[in-house]
Amino acid sequence: MHRPIMKAASVLLAAAISASMIAAAQGPLSRDVSASAAQTPERLDLSGIKPSVKAGGYEAYLSKHQHEEPSAEDVVIEADAFSKAEGMQVSVLQDYEGEPGKSIRTADAGTVTWQFDVKQAGLYNIRLKMFTEPGKDSDIERELAIDGAVPFSEAKSLVFNRVWKNEKQEFDRDASGNDLTPGQVEEHVWQEITLKDSAGSYEEPFMFYFSAGKHSLSLTSIKEPMVIRQMTLLAPAGPKAYDEVASEYERQGIQPASGVFMKVQAEKAAYKSSPSLLPYNDRSNPAVEPFHVSKLRNNAMGGYGWRLPGQWMEWEIDVPQDGLYQIAIKHRQNYLRGLSVLRSIYIDGRLPFKEMQNVAFPYGSAWQTKMVGPGGGEPYLFHLTQGKHRIRMEVTLGDIAPILRSVESNILELNAMYRKIISYTGTVPDTFRDYNLEQRIPEMTKVFRESSEQLEAIAKAIEGPSGQSDERTSIIHTVAYQLKDMADKPETVPSRVETFKTNVGALSSWMLTVNEQPLALDYLIVSSPGSKLPEAQAGAWKKLVTGVDAFFASFYEDYDDISSDADGKNSVSVWVTSARDQAQVIKRLVEDQFTPQTGIQVNLKLVASDVILPSTVAGKGPDIALQIGNDLPVNYASRSALQDLSAFPDFGEIKDRFHASALVPYEYNGSYYALPEQQTFPMLFYRKDIIEDELHLKVPQTWDDVYEMLPVLQKHNLQFGLPQKPLDSFGNYVSNANIATMAPNPAFAMFLFQNQGRFYKDGGMAVDLDSETGIQEFKQWTDFYVNYKLPISVDFANRFRTGEMPIGIVDYTMYNKLSVFAPEIKGLWSFAPVPGTPGTDGKLHREVGSSGSATVMFKGARNKDAAWQFMKWWTSKETQIAYGRQMEIRMGASARYPTANKEALAQLPWPTQDLRKLQDQMQWVKGIPEVPGGYLTGRNIDNAFRRVVVQGEDPRETMDNYVRAMNEEITLKRKEFNLPTQETRDLP
């Protein structure tokens, strides 16, 4: 028995040793030669790139005031001297949090206005002295107006970062000896922040023009409260160049420090701008500190999580003597091949000299130690006095910023041209027709030619002197060539319109990639000039020994096990069906909150959703399953696999945490078999720039408004979107492993509920879709596709992004996707409650159906009271808030959690106005019941829909036919479970 195993292990060991020796012999340099050959230069030649002036943007504002001089004096505005407050109650605070004088607390909604005098006309920076009040753990956002008007579009979204730190500087370890990810806590501090672009599109702070005389300045709250001490209109001033600073060192007689060597581990950052900046385990090389061959150690910082402009991390050092120091940074930038990522380096909150505004870290697959300097081996020297100092590194775009602004401007212009083209050709042009586009759209060839020239100039700047085209610029060249060719041959445009749209979409994706600047750090070294630095990579022998040790460790270490030993009587087993990130957050919450509060141990396992039922049937299932789809609880309950939760005495109290609609899918025979976790529902998304500005339409309130809007949209070959399937929390379509089943279409549910229709009757014995209401709403739904030719299947996010579908109804989690997926249209879109149907009661009915997920308890749970304790804790307001915030901390805005808990939803970091819209729509949400045999209802509705829309059959007859099929399946299942049917209901 043991010989084959030992033989296999020997073979694997020999292979591992050979691979390690080959890798060690090759070394890191051989792998990076090709990358370095095509490396983008640290400073780009932008001379060939024309400034892109976006209408209403900051560049247009600056060009308007280009002849104005910067101001030479400051204007101080005390916060408590505000002239008026609208929509909020402002509190005046005396000597708040150690800051002398009067401050004001502004709420998360409303506007505060100040009046002040400016003596000298000119351009000013604006600096706020502010304090981050406790809120919803998200960044603070404000809109700024001067004299009652927003000066430029970027001023509509001014972001103020909160300050975060690790809960503990020493990392906790789990029962297996692995480091745990530290919790993040906010440090509420006073900050002085000069207003600048939150997206990093402009390196320098914003400059605002004020003429001499009286002015007003208003701050409108978008989200989160904030305390303000004062605002200052500053004379713009930049840092000095290094040569000038070095000359000052000589004049002042400042000498280099001697005998000092300080190493700061990057994962021990003192402060950071985002709680998503977390230490992590890197096993790429044994020289990463600290390192263990088999245990997980938090030994690196940043990585892919540290990529967005404006994100910063700060480390504290204690300098033993005055003098000049050099700074070295051990890093790895293996994310953007052929490109350098940039960081700004601050000492004690300011740039020590101009060169620190853009410090480049070139691509390389191996860890490297960079001496901060001009190149050629000579470091920059930094003057540090004795005592504590802070070193901050902030993500910046540098010379990439004007390139991205230009690309973004081109994308918006090309998408606008695409919409003009399809207004004549449609999205599927007739290849045998001459549309004479060059006559109908005279500016088309000019736009194509100018955009092509601009894109070629951008590609040239990125490629640098080498001029080598590769993956960095291939899509730019592709789009530039196509635009030039279409400008030369305008008659080919109709046949290439689909490729044109695809290429512009690819250019948007390229922009997203380049906008991200990830960088991993191991440690920072502050030392006396000339100090010898440690090797960044381990030697061949060290790598060989480590590889052998790791090979043997792999036989007994299980890195996929996220649970602790919890098999005692006072324990519950919980299965999670989502992903590892979610499971890790749940595990941390359990260990920090649930187990200490209750003494109940939790055995947590990450499993695929399709293994739960077989495991339960085999008697090896869990006590509790989380994140179960809406269709499963009744399916399991009808087979007596789930515990009736309404049997617990406090169920009525727990039930009030949710809207009644959220519990509808989990009710079976008068009992409830699940507690809601997530609840999603449709909202109306629309492009403000197209619907309101270009087409001069209003957001539809009723379906009559929609019918009036459709001809205007179709005149321009634009589309209105109806929902097709439910979305998950990331804004993607919910996957369906069983092709036979399907959730009822959200659009049909919306029409049905708005007209007081229902899916089932007689307690779930039969469907009610053959009622007059059911037939009429089925016809209304299909008429949109038959009469108005709405597309049956679309990628809403992409068409919304291009403007091809500038308005549509889709689950509100699309908000999460658009926030990350389409940054170029930030501020150009919004959402609202869906159009409604006037009712006989005089109300405008906006009912929509909902989808979601739930947590269930299995009937075989060993300790039902402990399991119920866990379910109550998990669905509580506090836990749902903590989970939602932690998910957003780990994964960003794309992971905003659609909790079903009413109170928790209000505490998640939604902008105030958007939250109000969600809550307005939520009042009209209705749950879609689940019944035995109802798993085919959605599929049969879809079949009926396609017969009417695709094959042109009569809606009434088609629905009648499929209703019979639905009722047959329901009757069959009810008989199987010994439930009354329509056939047996009236029998004596």
Features:
single chain; about 1000 residues; alpha+beta; seven-stranded antiparallel sheet; six-stranded antiparallel sheet; 28 helices; about 35% helix; about 20% strand; disordered N terminus
Task: Explain what you see.
34% of the residues lie in helices and 21% in strands. It has 988 residues and is an alpha+beta fold. The strands form eleven sheets. Strands 1, 3, 4, 6, 11, 12 and 14 form a seven-stranded antiparallel sheet that branches. Helix 7 (444-463) runs antiparallel to helix 8. It starts with a helix and ends with a helix.
Strand content: 15-25%
Shape label: globular
SS class: alpha+beta
Give the helix proportion (percent range): 25-40%
- Count of extended strands: 42
Distance between the termini: 69 Å
Low-confidence segments, given as residue ranges, are: 1-37
Radius of gyration: 31 Å
User: Could you describe the largest sheet, including whether it forms a barrel?
Assistant: 7 strands, antiparallel
Question: How much is the average pLDDT?
Answer: 88
The number of distinct helices, counting runs of at least 4 residues, comes to: 28
